[in-house]
Write a structure and sequence with these properties.
Blueprint: E1 4-5, H1 6-11, H2 22-30, E2 35-40, E3 54-55, H3 60-68, E4 73-77, H4 85-106, E5 110-115, H5 126-135, E6 141-145, E7 153-156, E8 159-164, E9 167-170, H6 189-196, E10 206-209, H7 211-227, E11 233-237, H8 242-257, E12 262-266, H9 268-274, H10 285-288, H11 305-316
Parallel strand pairs: 2-4, 2-5, 3-4, 5-12, 6-11, 6-12, 10-11
Antiparallel strand pairs: 1-9, 7-8, 8-9
Length: about 325
């Protein structure tokens, strides 16, 4: 699968949907609906949101308390990407069961997002399967949404790309795909789902919401596509911008209002759109209330070449040891 010129590829796409849908999403959420519970398999999943609680425990009482408040969402940091597959499954099963019990105590409906890596690493489908079974919900479809704007992780024609400069590199051609625990060979997400499920999910069970639908048909077209998905199917969501995600979420909320239930495997940008959050700039030193003097600790834990180059650039600044 070939690399693409980023600028040329994006220019050839249909124009973005003209209207911001954040006010519409915010109104729908304010009117009530399912609370969003995000199970985050790695601490980086909260980087696109703000003013949202992050839990590091998941007892029934704690979950019921969070489900009972007025906030639209909360995260549960599972750190399950660091676990073996069987342990990750067991953890997701436990959290799913606790959420069901907590939802009954709180009297609050909720939707669950399995937030994972935008370069397709992580325990898929093991975590999603365990969650779905534990929740016992009548799930209509699994939605795959690895788009992550800030990281240049874009999905076009069902193919997932990683942007490097002005190039779009198919995900399977990047070092991320060589991960010892989570490696893969397919950049087309339809093929990736078949690969990761070892053929349990067949190509004819996989659908997509295209950029053409999102950008020319808008929320109504997205809603119609989601409502028409066969039971037990998987659907790929294409996106290259936050506006694309806004349009998708507006259609998603309409489909959910019509009675459809979905489970999500996503990267970080979807959660921002689903909560109707406007983008904020990076936190300043004043906002962090950091001291003017003294050192800080930077922990580097990834082995991929990009992290090595980032560490080299940091050390070259001269104020790090």
């Amino acid at each position: 699968m070939q690399r693409l010129n980023r600028q040329q590829t994006l220019q050839q796409l249909p124009a973005e949907w003209p209207d911001s849908l954040l006010p519409h999403i915010q109104q729908r959420l304010a009117a009530g609906g399912r609370k969003l519970v995000v199970l985050d398999d790695d601490p980086t999943g909260t980087q696109t949101v703000y003013d949202i609680p992050v839990l590091t425990e998941w007892s029934v009482d704690v979950l019921a308390m969070e489900l009972s408040n007025e906030l639209p969402a909360f995260y549960i940091l599972t750190n399950s990407r660091s676990l073996p597959a069987a342990a990750a499954q067991a953890l997701n099963r436990e959290i799913g069961q606790n959420l069901v019990a907590a939802g009954q105590l709180a009297g609050r409906a909720f939707a669950v997002v399995s937030r994972s890596d935008s370069t397709l690493r992580g325990h898929y489908p093991a975590e999603v399967d365990a969650l779905a079974a534990a929740l016992g919900q009548d799930v209509d479809a699994t939605l795959i949404i690895p788009f992550f704007l800030e990281g240049g992780r874009l999905t076009i024609n069902d193919v997932h790309y990683v942007a490097e400069g002005d190039e779009l590199i198919p995900a399977a051609a990047t070092p991320f795909a060589q991960d010892a625990a989570f490696g893969y060979t397919a950049s087309n997400l339809r093929d990736w789902v078949v690969e990761k499920t070892n053929g349990r999910v067949q190509p004819e069970q996989i659908y997509a919401v295209s950029l053409e639908q999102i950008r020319t048909g808008g929320p109504q077209s997205v809603a119609q596509q989601l409502i028409s998905l066969p039971k037990g199917s998987v659907c790929i969501i294409n996106s290259v911008s936050l506006r694309d995600q806004e349009v998708f979420v507006a259609g998603l909320l309409a489909a959910e209002a019509a009675g459809k239930q979905f489970i999500f495997r996503t990267a970080a940008s979807f959660v921002q759109a689903r909560l109707g959050l406007a983008t904020r700039p990076i936190l300043t030193q004043q906002q962090l209330d950091m001291p003017q003097h003294g050192g800080g600790l930077v922990v580097v834990g990834s082995y991929v070449p990009k992290t090595t180059s980032q560490l080299a650039a940091l050390l070259a600044q001269g104020d790090c040891t």
